[in-house]
Every structure is written in structure tokens, then in C-alpha cells.
Structure of Uracil phosphoribosyltransferase:
Amino acid sequence: MRLIEVNHPLVDHKLTTLRRKETPSAVFRQLVDELVTLLAYEATREINVEDVNIVTPVAHTTGKRLAEPRPIVVPILRAGLGMLDGMTRLLPTASVGFLGMKRDEVTLEIDTYANRLPEDLSGRQCFVVDPMLATGHTLIDAINFLLDKGAKDVTCVCILAAPEGLKTLEEAVGHRANVTVVVAAVDEKLNENAYIVPGLGDAGDRLYGIVD
Ligand SMILES: O=P(O)(O)OC[C@H]1O[C@H](OP(=O)(O)OP(=O)(O)O)[C@H](O)[C@@H]1O
Ligand SMILES: O=c1cc[nH]c(=O)[nH]1
Ligand SMILES: [Mg+2]
């Protein structure tokens, strides 16, 4: 498994505002959207391209274009939806498939309550978007699901990851195939409720304005 922690002052700046507890939902959504654009630039570095012959106003030349089969972007509902527009802005020809997954806050087990993906992902490059990698259980299930459908490789684009979750993920799927995780930051640890520390709280609640 490859881990890419994106080091960029703009990422750090936006992440700091994102973490602040007083940041309202509207600003939080905007920042997630901006951050995913910066992360997607790194995440798509190895996207498949092919040569194409074109004519400029001056000469014939050979350029590059995204190769078939088209990549697929998979947001993990709910929080991953906040990252979808940023990804498809950069990859407008990508397909989009949906996974709805919720972790039980007590047992930390994952319930997959929605699955709207093509049956066959043979040869497809998959970009899973979910802002939080905490215990890693959600992404393990998502990656296994996509690889079992034939995906060529899986790149997870996350905003924050916990070291414990990265280790668990590596142990669970690191051997399987091409798995890459791109994150804005690897935080310090998980707390007793499996929340990322210092983190940003519950990403879904903050994106969608749910206050307990
Ligand atoms: O690494 P894990 O310990 O599995 O936790 C990470 C998951 O938790 C959050 O989703 P949540 O289950 O809160 O669902 P939501 O997006 O509907 O809020 C987050 O968006 C990830 O999907
Ligand atoms: O810190 C965390 C951990 C899991 N899910 C979140 O939204 N935040
Ligand atoms: Mg949540």
C-alpha cells in the first residue's frame, strides 16, 4: 500500500480552518471541496492515459488523453458526498458509483446500506472518496468490495487519517493489489471513541449541519 501525505501550505491553511469547531457547515463544505481538488491532483498522478494525434493551428502533434475504460469515482455516503464535486470537476468523464456505509459508533462494525455500482469493474481505476480514515474498517470493506468486482487499482482520497487505521488497512489489503491512500494529514491517534485526534469531529455531521 502506498501512502501519500500531501504537503502544501494551502492544504495546511485550509485544513486548520476545517478543524476549528466554530467553522460553520457552509464554510466546511466549501473547504472540503477546495481541499479535494488539491488532493485529487496528487491522487490522479498515475491515471491511465494514451497517445492521441491532434492538429494545432500550427502543426500536427501527439498529445495525451485519458484512456478507456474510464475511471470510476466512488463516494462513501454520507461524508464522502462532500468530496464528489471536487473529484468530478477534475475528472469530468469519470463514472460515479455509490457506496453507503455507516459505522456503528459502539461496536465500530460497518453496515453497508447502499450499493449502486457497476457489476463488473474489470480493468477500472477506482477513486474512493471519504474524508475520514479512522479505524480503517470502512475503507477495508470498500476496497475489498471494489477489488472483488475486478477493479485494477484503488486510490482512496481522504482528508484525515489515524496511524492506527492506516496500519490496520495496510495489514488487511496491502497485499491485495495496487492500493494507494492520499491524505491531507496523518493525525496523532484515535481516542477512546475511535474519533481522530485532533481531527475535526464527525465529518458527516459537520458537512450537513447536524448538531447533537
Ligand atoms: O475508519 P472508520 O473507523 O471506519 O471510520 C471512518 C468512517 O466514519 C465516517 O462515516 P460515518 O460512519 O460516521 O457515516 P456518515 O458519513 O454517514 O457520517 C467517515 O466518513 C468514514 O466513512
Ligand atoms: O474522527 C472521526 C472518526 C470517524 N468519523 C468521523 O467523521 N470522524
Ligand atoms: Mg459520521
